[in-house]
């Protein structure tokens, strides 16, 4: 890992070539992965963390614990398939297989953005990449926007939002 | 497990207060509430050894539509005390909700309502009750009946023009409603949502005059902002109260209201595009500080409230300024 303070003299920002791509099953996430793959594929020193936070719906949604377990298992299988597909995109574009790792921690997330930032604290990449959700203003008002929240709250790192 | 004959006779005797003699002598007694259609008028349901007499099913209407019967919600009395109760049975329902052009998953959760009843025990701005398991493990909620009208009916029933209402009645209405907002803030602070914030889910308790929230069994699948939909509901009610009712574009057009020429898309409710949020353009005497709060719920808003604390802060600042 290459680690150095950035030129602005910001003591809290570490620069490295580690990139966290926050993904889900959406086309926005796929665009974000493709962007990184095409931009940086084949260049030395970059490490990619593919992150999907598995956050099942709250317990109230399920009539029983067994129903919840079945949901989580099915969702995990789906996500593992998607992460494998994203891994393939990156390696097809020149990343070494060992330079790409997938992470799918399971946790209850009132805010997906907060969970992504918490994972970022653990993995310490200096760049987060996320696809713009393209939610309408009405949806953003009612339900919020993960990408907007990450842009507003991320500290000590750079955020790329891919259209 | 059957009911002892002497106990059944006692229940029949007590039920005479509400039922004709023949019905009281032929009581059907339930210990299992799984099939709530089977619980009918004149039946007894026993919960934690306490008998409740079922009188009828509850009904609820929305958006001016005819009232729909809710078979899983029974109105009745606690047989021994005569206290009016609402008995809510287990009904797991999941469906798509559509608000404006947004669609999202909603579901009913008896467990959630049971938790909130426990959390809100003794809180003056929530309905009161408790949860109890029936003989089959269904979580039944027994809720004290609140005598009073809905906030919606109360505001609609005020016979006064808007200016008279605003200067003479609105300050107290707002003070009472702010207690409700603080009550929702209390839920959010405890990681709970109300889930179905509507103007007819606030009852004005005839005995205490307090505004009280009802119906906590609805839930929605939140996305990034867990409390966004609750906040939206709070904002809608606030706009309704400031406007002494919904100010609809259609009504303004029908009345050829002079405010029409000054209204634009940004002045409308961000979700219900037929309602005006920028009420100062219709009622120019509304203070800018109050109107700015309403504009956070408009199409032209640059900034949305992220939590109830922010809304409370702004309302408190407005009230401090206006006192």
Shape verdict of chain B: elongated
- The total domain count of chain B is 2
Mean pLDDT of chain A: 89
Just give the CATH class of chain A: Alpha Beta
> Can you count the helices of chain A?
5
If you average the pLDDT of chain B, what whole number results? 93
Distance between the termini of chain A: 29 Å
Quick recap:
Chain A has five helices and seven strands, in the order E-E-E-H-E-H-E-H-E-H-H-E. Chain A has a five-stranded parallel sheet with strand order 5-4-3-6-7, with helices on both faces. A two-stranded antiparallel sheet of chain A has the order 1-2.
Task: Give a written overview of the molecule.
The complex is a heterodimer of chains A (about 160) and B (about 325). By secondary structure, chain A is of the alpha/beta class. Chain A has one domain: HUPs (Rossmann fold, 3-Layer(aba) Sandwich). Helices cover about 40% and strands about 15% of the residues of chain A. Chain A contains five helices and seven strands; from the N terminus they run βββαβαβαβααβ. In chain A, strands 5-4-3-6-7 form a five-stranded parallel beta sheet, with helices on both faces. A two-stranded antiparallel ribbon of chain A has the order 1-2. In chain A, α1 packs parallel to α2. The longest helix of chain A is centred in the middle third of the chain and has 28 residues. Chain A is globular, with a radius of gyration of 17 Å. Chain B is α+β, with helices and mostly antiparallel strands. Chain B has two domains: about 130 residues, Phosphorylase Kinase, domain 1 (2-Layer Sandwich), CATH 3.30.200.20; about 180 residues, Orthogonal Bundle (Transferase(Phosphotransferase), domain 1). Chain B is about 30% helix and about 20% strand. Chain B is built from nine helices and 13 strands. In chain B, strands 1-2-3-4-5-9-8 form a seven-stranded mixed beta sheet, with helices on one face. The radius of gyration of chain B is 22 Å and the shape is elongated. The N and C termini of chain B lie far apart (about 65 Å). The model of chain B has no long low-confidence stretch (mean pLDDT about 95). Chains A and B meet through α4 of A and β7 and α6 of B.
């Amino acid at each position: 890992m290459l680690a150095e303070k950035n030129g602005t003299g910001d003591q809290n920002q570490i620069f490295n070539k580690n990139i966290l791509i926050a993904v889900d099953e959406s086309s926005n996430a796929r665009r974000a992965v493709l962007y990184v793959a095409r931009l940086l594929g084949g260049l030395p020193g970059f490490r990619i963390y593919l992150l999907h936070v598995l956050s099942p719906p709250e317990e109230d949604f399920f009539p029983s614990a067994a129903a919840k377990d079945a949901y989580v298992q099915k969702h995990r299988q789906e996500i593992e398939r998607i992460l494998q597909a994203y891994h393939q995109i990156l390696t097809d574009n020149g990343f070494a297989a060992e330079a790409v790792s997938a992470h799918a921690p399971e946790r209850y997330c009132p805010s997906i953005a907060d969970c992504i930032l918490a994972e970022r604290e653990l993995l310490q990449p200096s760049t987060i990449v996320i696809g713009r959700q393209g939610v309408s203003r009405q949806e953003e008002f009612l339900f919020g926007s993960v990408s907007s929240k990450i842009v507003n709250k991320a500290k000590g790192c750079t955020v790329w939002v891919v259209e | 497990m059957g009911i002892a004959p002497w106990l059944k006779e006692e229940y029949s005797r007590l039920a005479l207060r509400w039922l004709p003699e023949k019905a009281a002598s032929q009581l059907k007694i339930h210990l299992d509430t799984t099939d709530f259609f089977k619980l009918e008028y004149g039946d007894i349901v026993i919960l934690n050894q306490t008998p409740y007499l079922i009188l009828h099913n509850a009904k609820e209407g929305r958006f001016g539509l005819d009232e729909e019967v809710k078979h899983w919600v029974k109105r009745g009395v606690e047989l021994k005390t005569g206290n009016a109760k609402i008995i809510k049975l287990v009904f797991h329902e999941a469906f798509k909700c559509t608000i404006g052009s947004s669609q999202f998953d909603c579901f009913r959760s008896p467990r959630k309502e049971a938790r909130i009843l426990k959390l809100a025990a003794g809180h003056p701005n929530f309905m009161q009750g408790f949860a109890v398991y029936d003989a089959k493990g269904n979580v039944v909620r027994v809720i004290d009946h609140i005598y009073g009208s809905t906030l919606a009916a109360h505001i609609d029933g005020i016979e006064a023009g808007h200016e008279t209402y605003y200067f003479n009645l609105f300050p107290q209405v707002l003070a009472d409603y702010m207690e409700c907002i603080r009550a929702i803030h209390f839920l959010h602070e405890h990681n709970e949502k109300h889930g179905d914030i509507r103007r007819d889910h606030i009852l004005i308790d005839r005995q205490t005059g307090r505004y009280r929230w009802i119906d906590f069994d609805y839930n929605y699948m939140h996305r990034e902002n867990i409390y966004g939909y609750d906040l939206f509901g709070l904002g809608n009610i606030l706009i309704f109260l400031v406007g002494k009712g919904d100010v609809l574009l259609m009504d303004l057009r029908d009345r050829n209201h002079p405010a029409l020429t000054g209204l634009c898309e940004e002045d409308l409710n961000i979700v219900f595009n037929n309602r005006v949020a920028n009420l100062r353009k219709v009622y120019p005497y509304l203070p800018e500080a109050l109107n700015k709060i309403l504009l956070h719920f408009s199409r032209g808003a640059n900034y949305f409230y992220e939590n109830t604390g922010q809304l409370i802060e702004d309302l408190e600042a407005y009230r401090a300024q206006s006192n």
